[in-house]
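SAMPLE LOG
Freezer: B-3
Tube label: C17
Construct: single chain, 119 aa
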Amino acid sequence: MKNFVLLAPVVSLLLLAAHFLRAQAWVLFGLCLCLPALLLFRSRWAALAAQCGLLLGAIEWLRTLVALASARFALGQPYGRMVLIIGLVATATLMSAAVFRLPTVRQRYRLDPGGTASR
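STRUCTURE (predicted):
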């Protein structure tokens, strides 16, 4: 059960990797593929790197949402469903970053409320 909560960040990072693959952003694609592997290391820096990647990923989803919605609006095409879907993906990515606030995950990666590693 403890490791099951890490499924959300892994899926979110893989979804971001697919997004960057489609955009042919190879460096970001590779980075998003590597971040889930970092979660195998039970260290503070690995958790913070994954969390940072997820937060930046949520911002990327919002940037994509604005760009696509603007283009569809300008062309007079429907955009409501697309806004809903990408908005939910951005929210899920943001909530995946919040997984690192759970007590079991904080213990696994030696995170404490003050942000320093407990020994």
